[in-house]
Amino acid sequence: MDEARESIEHLEFEAALTRLEEIVAELEVGELALEEALAKFKTGMALKELCERKLTEAETQIEEYVTEEEPGQEAEPLFE
Fold this sequence. Notes:
The chain has 80 residues and is an all-alpha fold. It has one domain: Helix Hairpins. The chain has helices at residues 3-8, 13-29, 34-69. Helix 2 (13-29) runs antiparallel to helix 3 (34-69). The radius of gyration is 17 Å and the shape is elongated.
């Protein structure tokens, strides 16, 4: 695991999303040096993956909870 991934793995979803939004804004301005932009892009991709993983985990937990609460009923997908 590289440094960018190691430094973000501990972040909560909200903090990771906020940092990702900040990086996107910085990249959109277009004033970063190439190397800095590439480093921020790499960190942004790692943050995106982390956020997606945390959302998937949360969706799974919610679906499991709903299924436990309504045994015998076929659960409708909560998220698409």
